[in-house]
């Protein structure tokens, strides 16, 4: 059994928390170890200044919440020794609604965090990778995604506004991959994985990036091997899915490639959503 811990940052007052009402900016970023990428996250937050940052793949039980206090952020997180972990940084303190995905009380993997932020549910996920597909990891991935679908169906039935953001570990379509043939047998691109993604979409959700961006080559992940980053051999696996009422408020959704070019970067890069 894996240990799990959560920390909620203490309240601080800054000029940023007294801004007039404006569009809300929410970002997602798989940082591939918060310990290794803390300086990157702090730098990016100082530049981009989102209202919320949902982080995935913390890789540890502890989270450096105090490091974000000077920037005006409060941290809520679910950690796990060595693996997984998700954290949500917000401008005001929040109380988590859920710290694990419902449907399997025996699942101790730290992959899910759901909060209420100004009347909207923000669901931060780090979905299972699923490789190798001939191991127990792929059935676990599919079962986890089915549990997510069932939970989201419940939210839709109640007409609750929500945003699901994070690393889905799913390549939805051919155009989301530099070479589909390379990935055709991978858990991220297998038909069953993509069917689970479509099942979520069929609940009436919107893939935020694709509302205003239909282009090929819109990637969020580039492997460390074989010059994938400089050759733009990437895939899109980090997504924002919006409930209908949130989709009506969509202003923009863009991929910020800048941090992927930094020294000792994460293999993922941030995606930024703006809503009214």
Describe the structure.
Strands 3-4-2-1-14-13 form a 6-stranded mixed β-sheet. Strands 5-6-7-8-12-9 form a 6-stranded mixed β-sheet. A two-stranded antiparallel ribbon has the order 10-11. Helix content is 21%, strand content 24%. The chain has helices at 34-48, 137-157, 180-183, 191-201, 209-212, 244-247; strands at residues 24-30, 52-56, 74-78, 86-90, 96-98, 112-117, 120-126, 162-167, 206-207, 221-222, 234-235, 238-242, 250-255, 271-275. The protein has 276 residues and is α+β, with helices and mostly antiparallel strands. It has one domain (15-275): Endonuclease/exonuclease/phosphatase (Deoxyribonuclease I, Chain A, 4-Layer Sandwich). It has 6 helices and 14 strands. Mean pLDDT is 93; it is low at 1-21.
Please describe the topology of this protein.
Blueprint: E1 24-30, H1 34-48, E2 52-56, E3 74-78, E4 86-90, E5 96-98, E6 112-117, E7 120-126, H2 137-157, E8 162-167, H3 180-183, H4 191-201, E9 206-207, H5 209-212, E10 221-222, E11 234-235, E12 238-242, H6 244-247, E13 250-255, E14 271-275
Parallel strand pairs: 1-2, 7-8
Antiparallel strand pairs: 1-14, 2-4, 3-4, 5-6, 6-7, 8-12, 9-12, 10-11, 13-14
Helix pairs in contact: 2-4
């Amino acid at each position: 059994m894996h240990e799990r811990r959560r920390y909620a940052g203490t309240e601080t007052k800054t000029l940023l928390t007294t801004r007039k009402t404006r569009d809300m900016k929410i970002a997602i970023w798989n940082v591939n170890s918060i310990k290794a990428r803390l300086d990157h996250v702090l730098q990016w937050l100082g530049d981009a200044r989102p209202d919320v940052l949902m982080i995935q793949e913390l890789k540890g039980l502890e989270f450096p919440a105090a490091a974000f206090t000077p920037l005006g952020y409060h941290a809520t997180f679910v950690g796990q020794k060595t693996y997984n972990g998700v954290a949500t940084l917000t401008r005001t303190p929040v109380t988590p609604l859920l710290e694990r995905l419902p449907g399997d009380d025996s699942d101790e993997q730290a992959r899910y965090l759901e909060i209420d932020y100004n009347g909207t549910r923000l669901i931060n996920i780090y979905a299972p990778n699923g490789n190798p597909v001939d191991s127990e990891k792929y059935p676990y991935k599919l079962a986890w995604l089915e549990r997510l679908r069932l939970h989201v169906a419940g939210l839709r039935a109640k007409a609750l506004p929500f945003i699901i953001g994070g690393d889905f570990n799913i390549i939805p379509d051919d155009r989301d991959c530099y070479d589909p043939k390379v990935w055709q047998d991978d858990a991220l691109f297998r038909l069953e994985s993509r069917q689970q993604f479509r099942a979520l979409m069929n609940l009436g959700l919107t893939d935020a990036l694709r509302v205003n961006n239909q282009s090929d080559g819109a990637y969020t992940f580039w492997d460390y091997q074989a010059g994938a980053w400089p050759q733009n051999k990437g895939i899109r696996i980090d997504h924002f899915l919006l409930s209908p009422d949130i989709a009506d408020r969509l202003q923009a959704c863009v991929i910020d490639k800048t941090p992927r070019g930094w020294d000792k970067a994460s293999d993922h890069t941030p995606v930024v959503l703006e809503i009214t």
